[in-house]
Each structure stands twice: as structure tokens, then as C-alpha cells.
Amino acid sequence: MDKESALMSFLAYARREIKAPISIDIYGANGWYRTGSRTGQDVELLARYVDVICPMFYPSHFEQTFLAQKPSEERPYRIFYYGSYRNILLARNAVLIRPWTQAFYLPVSYDKKYYDGDYVQRQIFGIRDSINQGYTYWNNSGRYEDIRPDIEMTAPYPWEIPEEFAGVSIPFFRGQ
Fold first, then answer.
1. What is the pLDDT of residues 20-30, one digit of tens each?
2. pTM higher than 0.85 for the full model?
3. What is the domain partition of the chain in residue ranges?
4. Diameter of the chain by CA atoms?
């Protein structure tokens, strides 16, 4: 059995047997690249069996040049803004997309230069300004000092809005 078939078989079984919402975590790259055959994590296929998909769009895990156009410090915003939107499209709006946010530092070039509380906050604004279906913080050491209180829906973006996002709003699919 290939990886996709194994996951679909297991999730079909879980859907039949578990009388509760089902959530899965996937690598963030699977929401950007059609890599499901390598990992078995094809968003479009898995959305048939679950209620929530939680992509791990950790900016430190993408190539350091990925979405790093100027202003470079807005990279976390871009990754979560576009990543959330891409996943809801891949899932054909059949599930909630609730990304994991990177609330931890990795010693890669981008994080060395930009990681701080703003880095985490930019991810949250990216999710909010995209599909706004929730998020979860992750810190691999259980240290959450970089987390700020949740933002209000009407809170203005506290940094200069990148030109590419000025006046742009993504349509919300669930009619809310």
C-alpha cells in the first residue's frame, strides 16, 4: 500500500469508528507543493476524512529565500497568509484550516535576524487577515515567553503593510 492509501485507509476507519471531530497535523510544505505522494499528506485527499487540518507553516523550515522579498521581516506574515488560503482551496473548503504557528527559534539565517515577539505576532496577523479559522502555538521546549495576548479582529496591523497586501482582502468561504 502506498503512503496516501495507508493514510486514507486509516482515516476512513477512524471516521467510521470515532464519533468526534478528527484533526490531523501536516507538514507545511504540503500546502504549498503537491508533495503528498512523498509523505502521503495530500490536503485534497485527506480533507475527505477529517474535520480540521493543521499545517505546520514554520517559516524556519522553508528555504530561507522563500517569500523573503522586501520587506523581509514580513516573511512570516506572507507564509501564513498565503499558506492558510492555499490550504483552504486545496481542501475545497471542506474542513477548517488551523495552522500551527512557530513560537520557537531555530538558528537559521532568517530566524537569527528576525525572530522575536513580532515574528510570532506577524504569523497571527497573516492567519487572521487570510481565512481566520484559528491557530495553535507550538514551542518545542514548552517556552512561550514570545507569545503576546491574542489580537482582536479589529486590531490594526502594527507594522507598515507590505505593498502587495494593501487593500487586498481574501474572500471568506463559509459565508460568515
1. 999 999 999 88
2. yes
3. 3-165
4. 50
